[in-house]
Amino acid sequence: MLRKFLRVLGIVLAAAIVIGAALLLYLEPYVTYDRDGAHLSLKKNVQDPDGTGATAALPEVSDAQIVYDEAQPGSDRIADLGGVYVTTQMLRDPEAVRAALEQQGACAVLLQLKSTFGDFYYSSSIDGAELADVDTAAVDSLIDWLSQHGYYLIAEVPAFCDTAFALANPAAALPLSSGALWMDSNGCYWLDPASETVMIYLKQIARELSSRGFREVVFSEFRFPASNSISYHSEKSGAELTQDAAQELTTFFSGSNLMISFETDDTAFPADVCTGRLYIRDVDGSKIEKFAQAYGSAENLTELVFLVNSKDTRFDERAVLRPLLNS
């Protein structure tokens, strides 16, 4: 009896396997697949509409429907990416800038987006922000295009030289003994690096630029002016105040997707507190080693970058950004 039972059971199982295989073959055209697995549908799979195993022709797609994703740069090092810088003067013709960058291809692009007088060259939403006399909407479109096409975006922002903010917030500016605001030889007012109001302002700018697609913000004019006319009382020196401000900005954005960098033209910048890049502007090739030695011991520094309008071959082995257009 046991042998008969096992024989019948074997026949039934074999029959079930044959029937199951036949059903799978028959139902294959009706099976669809997605992220949740396989599903049975009363409609045939569009990839095999007649159940013959042939693949259906794909629908025609016009050029207007295609979205092209530009290849992202394979490195975040300026030395590897190469690139250019765009001045506020160049941004007066955003179309020319875009045309030149299309020829350049994906690379690092530094945009000067605020003047030392405090005018913004993009449509800033920061309270009280004064817009420059340019087509800021066109600059916005340029920024969006660069962000969408794989360019490594860097914004340069003057930090403590800002006439508009100083006039709107005189208590946060550097004064004369008379109480009036101190002005440099270019007619610009300067801000107090120790002012909480100033630091909040700089953080707001950096956060806004990050939301616009910028990967890095470079603060230029990041120093305490050397002038005996400034009436300022502090236990700390101007260099120490600058270092504290640099440390605060670096720490505030630590762990975010935004790199905080600084620009200088001398060898006294407190690079030890900088985890981003240090940009050196307008130096000749004979001074390359001087800056390399001055900042070579800054272990946290990501990279030393030269902003030059020189074809000196001594820059070829360094990270360099040159102007996009001839001024």
Supply the CATH class of the largest domain: Alpha Beta
CATH topology name of the largest domain: TIM Barrel
Name the CATH architecture of the largest domain: Alpha-Beta Barrel
Number of strands: 12
The general outline is elongated
CATH superfamily of the largest domain: Aldolase class I
Q: Determine the oligomeric state from the structure.
A: single chain
Instruction: Quote the beta fraction.
Output: 15-25%
Q: What is the straight-line distance between the termini?
A: 102 Å
Average pLDDT over all residues: 85
Following the backbone from N to C, one meets helices and strands in this order, namely HEEHEHEEEHEHHEHEEHEE
Rg from Cα: 31 Å
Number of domains: 2
